[in-house]
């Protein structure tokens, strides 16, 4: 689509992100369409409740110093991120599908938006005192500028590291499965007894890597959730002593 000098394309990432969103919405809709589900949950309702509890526990455990009501304000955003990642990461294991998180620009956009939102939350809750996150407590005043710079660099690097971690894990695992699957299928189709027998090794490796990659895809969704909770905890619970020492 061309609008003026701008071109817009409906790409594979757009299609599969839309499919993931539709899948999640349909699952939640069918589970809750009767006003909250059944008193005796079926398999799908149990899955939704399991996802809810799985996200709620890290929020309560990792974000300290806040009341339950304040934590619940962060819960919907964290829950959406986890659920979307949980359904999105394993998509590449389905034949003829596409792994959205294997594109670095997409994972970088997601991690940067989360970092920006957490930074805004930090300033909203603490004002300019949020800058004390870059100044450890008990630092002598002459060393303060150097330590602020050293602490600020890794803090800003969070926006990049989260995207790189997810992209690297998804790309490496899915690429390994694809390469070995292609090798096993080629050996299987050569109509030669030697290659047919030799195909058992790559075939078993593909099966093992498939299970491992499914576990990694689910684990990365959990790691992303824990990271968000830790970053929120750092942004909301600051070491005020370092800031006060700076002014003293």
From TrEMBL:
Family of the protein in this entry: Belongs to the ATPase A chain family.
Segments traversing the membrane: 6-28, 103-123, 203-232
Subunit structure as annotated in this protein's UniProt entry: F-type ATPases have 2 components, CF(1) - the catalytic core - and CF(0) - the membrane proton channel. CF(1) has five subunits: alpha(3), beta(3), gamma(1), delta(1), epsilon(1). CF(0) has three main subunits: a, b and c.
A GO term, aspect molecular function: proton-transporting ATP synthase activity, rotational mechanism
Organism, scientific name: Punica granatum (Pomegranate)
Membrane topology classification: Multi-pass membrane protein
Gene from which the chain derives: LOC116190051
Keywords: ATP synthesis, CF(0), Hydrogen ion transport, Ion transport, Membrane, Mitochondrion, Mitochondrion inner membrane, Transmembrane, Transmembrane helix, Transport
Subcellular location: Mitochondrion inner membrane
Name under which the protein is recorded: F-ATPase protein 6
Gene Ontology cellular component annotations, sorted alphabetically: mitochondrial inner membrane; proton-transporting ATP synthase complex
Main location: mitochondrion
Reported function: Mitochondrial membrane ATP synthase (F(1)F(0) ATP synthase or Complex V) produces ATP from ADP in the presence of a proton gradient across the membrane which is generated by electron transport complexes of the respiratory chain. F-type ATPases consist of two structural domains, F(1) - containing the extramembraneous catalytic core and F(0) - containing the membrane proton channel, linked together by a central stalk and a peripheral stalk. During catalysis, ATP synthesis in the catalytic domain of F(1) is coupled via a rotary mechanism of the central stalk subunits to proton translocation.
SUPFAM superfamilies for the chain: F1F0 ATP synthase subunit A
């Amino acid at each position: 689509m061309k609008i003026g000098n701008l071109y817009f394309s409906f790409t594979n990432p757009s299609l599969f992100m839309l499919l993931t969103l539709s899948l999640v919405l349909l699952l939640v809709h069918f589970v809750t369409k009767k006003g909250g589900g059944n008193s005796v949950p079926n398999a799908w309702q149990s899955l939704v409740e399991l996802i809810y509890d799985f996200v709620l526990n890290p929020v309560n455990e990792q974000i300290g110093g806040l009341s339950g009501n304040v934590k619940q304000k962060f819960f919907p955003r964290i829950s959406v991120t986890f659920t979307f990642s949980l359904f999105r990461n394993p998509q590449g294991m389905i034949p003829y599908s596409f792994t959205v998180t294997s594109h670095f620009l997409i994972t970088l956009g997601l991690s940067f938006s989360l970092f920006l939102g957490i930074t805004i939350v930090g300033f909203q809750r603490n004002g300019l005192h949020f800058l004390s996150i870059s100044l450890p407590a008990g630092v002598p005043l002459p060393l303060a500028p150097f330590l602020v710079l050293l602490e600020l660099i890794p803090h800003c690097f969070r926006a990049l590291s989260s995207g790189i971690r997810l992209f690297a894990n998804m790309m490496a695992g899915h690429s390994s499965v694809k390469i070995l699957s292609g090798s096993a299928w080629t050996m299987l189709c050569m109509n030669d007894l030697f290659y047919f027998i030799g195909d058992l090794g790559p075939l078993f490796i593909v099966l093992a890597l498939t299970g491992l990659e499914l576990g990694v895809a689910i684990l990365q969704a959990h790691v992303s959730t824990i990271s968000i909770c830790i970053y929120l905890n750092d942004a909301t619970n600051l070491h005020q002593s370092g800031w006060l020492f700076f002014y003293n």
